[in-house]
Design a protein that fits this description.
The chain is mainly β. It has four helices and 36 strands.
């Protein structure tokens, strides 16, 4: 490279004159190429006053003017900068200080690193002198003071520089294999100086500190994780040689596929995976929540028992019987009632169908063969009144009433167990057991009007719950208070979850996690959260949970784990009562759940006991419910395919990665 002084190369750029008739220099073009003010007309011409053009001037004349002729301006840019007009090994841009052609007229002149001109190959000498070197500045043939670029803190590789002062080409001590320190450059700019670099300590695989060429060391993964390695979660480890990361415990979640049984992405639910939701959490009092084919909740079988509106699997609600009467169900009369949002036929009677049924002593002309004489009279005609009790008004003869002889005669309404066909229902009650006092009159203390929808003094509720009664008034934190078939408050849907303290069967409550943390669960750093169902949410932990049956947290494919039942109970699974537990293999154990009674909706004949008394046994129709698996097998009340789907839904509640 020619060592021509920039000051000695100062000349004035002359414009090109296009056309064979004129080669007059154009001083207006001095500012149209970079460093034009540091060159003369020799930049484009073979002489200082114009005349024939050198190779660089010829390139501009034929290809790089805005318009042909004297009016044209030089088009300086990447294309012209990339050419090498004089063939000296340096591009036009390099020789004018703008290798990329980014300079524009009006910009400051760039620094010249090559002391040559683009139109003269003879000025490419790096010796500092030459026969035509004077054309680069100064007098022709004169000796030039070309600057040596080494020492200007700018690395120019074309001149053989490896570095220059503080410019070391982006290299560091670390990139050169050292632990730390500062790189320097040799005085001759041909070698990087590492004397101030600090050597790295010896690599010891297994000391849990990643050094030197180690990719990882124990728990020191260099910031890597399963997520940075392209997985969705899991545990990233280091191999025994500290030379590579092990991803065998990393996991990838499936893509959103509605119907695959895994709630992912925007899916609200997926088949049996309801994400922990229940009818109660959706604002209902009871019922079975399902997931529809579009992966949205199906609330068709959720009930709002007590609101007076029949919905879901309800057959009645409070005093709303849906127009159903005893007669509509095949009874002769009586009072239909509602208990637990299911029809209660215990107040219905078959009396009036001319056939003795159940506890009836007679019905119309059907006296069962009984006569006045059999009742202690001397004669007469026995009849039957509308309540299906004997009518002895046409019997004759004196009957001696002996209260306590077990036979209701004469004026006795009853005698011991002989109720003379009477029952709680015949006396206007809804249910219960009628008794006979020592004075041979009825005792109704065990009779009940529970189920008539009217709150009596001895009742806590009847169908609906009084407004002043809530789960809170019963000592719970939240939930929905219900009413049992015996008109007592039902607190099974109430919960202590939400009072901020861990109670029985809860693994967390609000900010109370006991001694549990992400670390104690083996999930690394992070923060636990507590779901509204008082179940731990580990989504904030650094490591995704792995199924570990027995760790007290139901995850992935576990139906339960210890006390974590995912919010399920015997009641939620369609049983009447009982205690749901988790088996040692993390599956639900319903052995202690009590199945509800089955109701045919018709009062059955219980027969006659040894004393001659008759009793009745009735069972109340209940809404279809789903039964959980027991040791004896599975059965679903109602017998529909939906029951099985509901069962699957309840047993596969939300496995949380707990977005």
């Amino acid at each position: 490279m020619r060592s021509l002084s920039l000051l000695s190369c100062l000349v004035v750029l002359c414009g090109l004159v296009l056309g064979a008739s004129s080669s007059e220099a154009r001083s207006s073009r001095v500012g149209q190429i970079p460093n034009g003010s540091q060159a003369n007309c020799l930049a484009c011409h073979v002489s200082g006053g114009g005349g024939a053009r050198n190779p660089f001037g010829a390139q501009i004349e034929f290809s790089f003017l805005t318009v042909s002729g004297a009016a044209g301006s030089v088009v300086w840019g990447p294309a012209l900068a990339a050419l090498d007009a004089d063939g000296d090994g340096y591009t036009n841009g390099e020789e004018l200080g703008d290798p990329t052609g980014a300079w524009r007229a009006g910009n400051a002149n760039p620094t010249l690193l090559v002391a040559t001109l683009p139109g003269y190959a003879s000025c490419a000498s790096t010796a500092g002198t030459g026969a035509n070197c004077g054309r680069c500045g100064g007098s022709a043939g004169g000796t030039q003071n070309c600057p040596d670029p080494c020492g200007d803190n700018s690395t120019y590789t074309a001149a053989g520089e490896v570095c220059d002062g503080t410019s070391v080409g982006g290299a560091t001590c670390v990139s050169e294999g050292f632990a730390s320190g500062s790189l320097g450059c040799s005085p001759t700019c041909d070698e990087i100086d590492t004397l101030s670099c600090v050597a790295a300590p010896e690599d010891v695989c297994g000391d849990a500190t990643r050094t030197g060429a180690e990719v990882c060391d124990g728990r020191d993964l260099g910031g890597a994780s399963c997520v940075t390695e392209g997985f969705d979660g899991g545990t990233l480890t280091c191999d025994d040689s500290c030379s590579g990361l092990v991803t065998t415990e990393c996991i990838r979640l499936p893509t959103d596929v509605c119907g695959d049984g895994r709630r992912t992405g925007p899916e609200i639910c997926d088949a049996g995976d309801l994400g922990g939701a229940t009818c109660v959490s959706r604002g209902y009092t009871a019922g079975t929540l399902l997931c529809g084919g579009d992966c949205n909740f199906d609330e068709a079988f959720c009930n709002q028992c007590g609101d007076g509106t029949i919905g879901g699997s309800e057959t009645c609600d409070g005093s709303n019987l849906g127009g159903v009467t005893c007669e509509a169900l095949g009874f002769a009369g009586g009072t239909m009632a509602c208990a637990g949002c299911g029809l209660d036929t215990s107040g219905c009677t078959l009396c009036g169908n001319d056939t003795r049924d159940g506890s009836e002593t007679c019905d119309g002309n059907d006296l069962g063969g009984t006569t006045c004489e059999m009742l202690g009279f001397t004669g007469g005609t026995l009849g039957c009144i509308s309540s299906c009790l004997f009518d002895t008004s046409d019997c004759v003869g004196t009957v001696v009433d002996v209260c306590g002889d077990g036979v209701a005669t004469g004026s006795e309404v009853c005698d011991n167990t002989d109720l003379n066909g009477g029952s709680c229902g015949s006396l206007g009650f809804v249910s219960g057991t009628l008794g006979c006092g020592s004075d041979c009159t009825f005792e109704t203390a065990a009779c009940s009007r529970c189920g008539d929808g009217v709150l009596d003094a001895e009742e806590s509720c009847d169908g609906s719950v009084p407004e002043e009664s809530t789960c809170s008034t019963e000592g719970f934190a939240a939930g929905t208070l219900g009413c049992t078939s015996t008109c007592e408050l039902d607190v099974t849907a109430c919960t202590l979850c939400g009072n901020g303290a861990i109670d029985t069967d809860e693994v967390c409550d609000g900010s109370d996690f006991g001694t549990t943390s992400c670390g104690s669960l083996g999930l690394g750093e992070g923060s636990l959260a507590c779901l509204a169902t008082c179940v731990i949410d580990t989504a904030g932990c650094a490591v995704a949970p792995v199924d570990r049956c027995g760790d007290g947290a139901a995850t992935a494919d576990e139906s339960c784990d210890g006390a974590d039942l995912l919010g399920l109970s015997c009641d939620a699974l369609g049983f009447a009562s009982g205690t749901l537990v988790c088996a040692t293999d993390c599956t639900l154990d319903t052995a202690a759940c009590v199945a509800p009674e089955t109701d045919t909706g018709v009062t059955a004949d219980a027969g006659t006991d040894s004393s001659g008394d008759t009793g009745s046994e009735d069972t109340t129709a209940t809404p279809p419910s789903t039964k959980a698996k027991s040791d004896e097998g599975c059965s679903a009340a109602g017998g529909g395919a939906w029951s099985w789907l509901a069962l699957l839904g309840l047993l596969a509640l939300a496995r949380r990665r707990r977005a």
